[in-house]
Amino acid sequence: MTARALPGAPAAEALLARARERLAALPGGAHLHVIRLGDDPASVSYVRLKDRKAREVGLRSTVHALPDATPEADLLALIARLNADPAASGILVQLPLPAHVNASRVLRAIDPDKDVDGFHPVNVGGLWSGETRLPPCTPAGVLALLDHYAVPVAGKRAVIVGRSNIVGKPLAAMLLARDATVTVAHSRTPDLSAVTRAADILFAAVGRAHLITPAHVRSGATVIDVGVNRHAVADEPPRLVGDVHPDVRSVAGALTPVPGGVGPMTVAQLLMNTVTAAHHHAHP
Ligand code: NDP
């Protein structure tokens, strides 16, 4: 068996088309503000991509690139200014933040109605109780990808490897809301492959190159690879690989590629969230 590929690009385009349609119904448009501290190369490239895609969709986009040593008080003052600005639809603070900044305090300072990353505790609570309008982008993008390819979720056994606040936990909440039976595994899970082999849909959100091998996957399962890892083999330059070993293709029924799988969905969902936030502001 060779797994069916589930590329992100067509699913992301469909999501962006919906975002464009909803944007057209907003006379004032929508404006995304992304705040970045320092020059971490991965953060610089993620922020550049978000800014470029936002403009392509027709959003206004402003990147606030601040020095690494920016005092937390200055960052909080910028967030307060954007919270109070009716023209600012969405605010995103790119993570990770430098060690001198308390990330949790910063995320809590963002107006929950402008929190397009969905990380504010109000939105996290809302996610678990079924009330949030702004779901975290990666898990929501993963669900949109499954929907695009008509992969059923209700009644299925879903296993998530990884329990972070940005991927694993919110993905568990969303899958539960969609009537999957959900198991969350992590670094303290004994006999991981016995757990993952029970999955109809297996989600790898770990950050370990090729951790998931054919031995972890039930024949015909759908495998969603969220991982993005810089992987160097021998003398070759490092390249981006997922958490899932390429040999899984011979066992799985369907598999997302890395790069080009979940990544584009995350950005598309961010832009959708920005349009949603702008709609809410226009029609509270
Ligand atoms: P974190 O480092 O925050 O979490 C990793 C999780 O994996 C933890 O829960 C950890 O367990 C678990 N884990 C670590 N080692 C093992 C192991 N050997 N067996 C089982 N579980 C293990 O990572 P993130 O959730 O932030 O990101 C995960 C991956 O997804 C990364 O590669 C990241 O780059 C990628 N990512 C991709 C995005 C995209 O758009 N494509 C967006 C966001 C992230 P424990 O809790 O016990 O420590």
Automatic annotation (TrEMBL):
GO terms for biological process: L-histidine biosynthetic process; methionine biosynthetic process; purine nucleotide biosynthetic process; tetrahydrofolate interconversion. GO terms for molecular function: methenyltetrahydrofolate cyclohydrolase activity; methylenetetrahydrofolate dehydrogenase (NADP+) activity. Residues 8-117 form the Tetrahydrofolate dehydrogenase/cyclohydrolase catalytic domain. It comes from the Bacteria. Its EC number is 1.5.1.5, 3.5.4.9. InterPro entries: Aminoacid_DH-like_N_sf, NAD(P)-bd_dom_sf, THF_DH/CycHdrlase, THF_DH/CycHdrlase_cat_dom, THF_DH/CycHdrlase_CS, THF_DH/CycHdrlase_NAD-bd_dom. Pathway: One-carbon metabolism; tetrahydrofolate interconversion. PROSITE patterns: THF_DHG_CYH_1, THF_DHG_CYH_2. Homodimer. This is Bifunctional protein FolD.
